[in-house]
Write a structure and sequence with these properties.
Largest sheet: none
Radius of gyration: 21 Å
Order of helices and strands: HHHHHHHHHHHHHHH
Distance between the termini: 40 Å
Helix content: over 70%
Length: 365
Amino acid sequence: MKKRNATIDLMKFVFALIIVLFHASANLKLGFRFFVNGRLAVEFFFIVSGYLMVRSAMKEPTAQDDVFGTANRQILHKIKGLFPDYLIAWAISFAITSTGMRDSAVDVIKRFLSGVFEFLFMTSAGFDESARVNNVTWFLSAMILAMALLLPVFLKNRRFYLKWLAPVGSVFLYGFLVKTWKYPFTSSIAWNGFVTKGTLRAVAGMLLGAVAYSLSEQLKKVRFSTFSRVLLTAVEAGGYLFFIYYVYGHDHSSFDIALVFWAAVSVMLSFSGCTYSGDILSGLHLDGACTWLGIFSLDLYLSHAAWVKHWLLLFPSLSGMKSLVLFLAASFGTALAVYILSAVIRKNGSAISGKMKKIFLAEDL
């Protein structure tokens, strides 16, 4: 089993929870607001995805005869890792949406057939976002589309990608986002005539993640003193803590872009191994818990959106803290169900696959 980064896994859960709380604060009748700029937490996941994409692709041979074939294989591997969680969460979201919207039989059929855009991760390409039953799938769509654009370039010339395209491209794209929309992180579906804002955010964030990869690899070669490691740990933790503090009580502003770049610094330090954060979590025997939280964060992210979108339709009389507690219970309960069902399917994957083949494929004569 590949070794996971406990700090990154812990922060995955923290940032996923921030997104859940941001959506709750913005959509439920609570009477108060918190994590008013929680949408910015999505950029953390784009940066981490860009780092991991490069780390995985670095294992491929330098000389590539079939760049696009290798890229397709890497992307399919990424998509495979999202299943069956993605499908189970979508099915539950479909049921919640149809119930909340009080769909007729025809509406149910139309909604199901329109789901092809979500199944194929196409929504962030500009396809009908109103047909989504799980609004947060735009992030996964944007990530896959960004990988489809960036991976072939990396596999063709990794030096060009890491030394030039990643640093220059991330700066130019973030600058374009700021000048085009002023607040580049407030929407995922905004359209500039060619591409959605969400896809541009994904490409820019994943390029920034590649920069974090290059810098972390350089840091791994340095033997830091105890004092230096303590200082770097403070920078890493301070970056995360200030990010959380800022998005809690400060709405979107021109400072957001600076906060994203500082988040990339914390991610870079977490992956570099030159801080004490990993040692602290290991010393407290929290590695396993952090790993589980990192895995569970995907299910939580996928499981809350349909609830928050239709909560007021399903439970119009609920408000305040009671509404928030029940919403969180529903979201975490759904996420746990998705996690358990997915684990069962993975464990019995071979048996299930064999039964499906017997049902749908003719036996050899």
